[in-house]
Amino acid sequence: MQRASAAMLPDGRRMHLHHGPIDLIVETVGGDQQAAYRRAAERFESLLDELVSELTELRCQADADRRFRGAVAARMQNAVAPFTREFITPMAAVAGAVADEILGALLDGGEFSKAYVNNGGDTAFHLTKGETIRAVVANDHPAGIAVDARQPWRGVATSGWRGRSHSLGIADSVSVVAADAARADAAATMIANQVDLPGNTKIKRQPACALSPDSDLGDLLVTTGVAPLDETEAIEALDNGLRYADILVSEGLVGGAILILDRQVRMTQASHALFHTEGEMTHA
User: Fold this and answer.
1) 120: helix, coil or strand?
2) What single string gives the DSSP state of each residue in 43-91?
3) Which NCBIfam families does this chain map to (predicted)?
4) Can you give the pTM of this predicted structure?
5) DSSP state of 247
6) In the predicted model, what is the mean pLDDT of residues 94-105?
7) Torsion angle, CA of 205/208/210/214, rounded to 10 degrees?
8) C-alpha to C-alpha distance for 252 and 90, rounded to whole angstroms
9) Number of neighbours of residue 74 by Cβ within 10 angstroms
10) Taking the domain 5-277, which CATH number applies?
């Protein structure tokens, strides 16, 4: 495997960190940017190796009593801990946990008005008074997020069957805001799994291990295709996910969620101050 690399992007403001499957875009505003980028690059250099050293355990069903040596693995474990009554592995939070860890390195010892680490859309961010972060959360749909410093949320993540990872559900995308990116990542995964129509013949599924032999999902059936749904079917699937998302909001595990399927949109009640959509989309 090639070594970790760090390079400034052409705009001269952002840094790109790359190692194996991990691609991060990093930016800070205010403060000593170069020192922050050096800290981030130094922390990033060993991060993937640390994860690989505990990968077997990270791919197992989450266990509240299991302890990990690495800082990122521990973040992953903490993020999935609320969901251990259901099937989940710490890998459900890996992208967000990596973003959180590098954000911590960026901010260590520096003072910045704003900073973020974007790991393929799962993003950890830092805001000070008067600052706001805005981002697109669903590339195939006109949906975005706006969080300001007065709100306690510092992470956003998106999951769905069309994304980078396998999903048990059929959501085009589920985006979640939470206290940090790891917790948003885990929650987005779990909500996306609930956006489903069990037994519907329009949905194609295969065992995860048949698609990726080393998948943490093992022989669980993951979505590989969804034929066109009628409006009633799409609404039913989204409502299944929304009920679960509302529970997570009521428990304080997430700040809000937006669920999208076939251009139908559902938001948790708390989400209207966080997410926005444009165009001809149906809102709950």
Assistant:
1) coil
2) HHHHHHHHHHHTHHHHTSPP-TT---SSHHHHHHHHHHGGGTTSS--GG
3) PRK04334.1-2
4) 0.93
5) H
6) 98
7) 170
8) 20
9) 17
10) 3.10.520.10
Helices 71-80/94-107 angle, 10° precision: 130
Query: Are residues 95 and 75 in contact, defined by beta-carbon separation less than 8 angstroms?
Result: no
CA distance 140 to 5: 30
In the chain, where the domains are located = 5-277
Mean pLDDT score, 112-116: 95
CA distance 275 to 283: 12
Phi-psi region of 274 (alpha: psi -120 to 50; beta: other; left: phi over 0): alpha
Please state, in angstroms and rounded to a whole number, the distance separating the CA atoms of residues 58 and 214.
12
pLDDT tens digit sequence for 138-186 = 656 667 788 999 999 999 999 999 878 899 999 999 999 999 999 999 9
Burial (CB count <10 Å: 0-12, 13-18, 19+), residue 56: exposed
For residue 231 the two structure tokens come to 């409006």
User: Phi/psi class of residue 241: alpha, beta or left (left: φ > 0; alpha: ψ in -120 to 50)?
Assistant: alpha
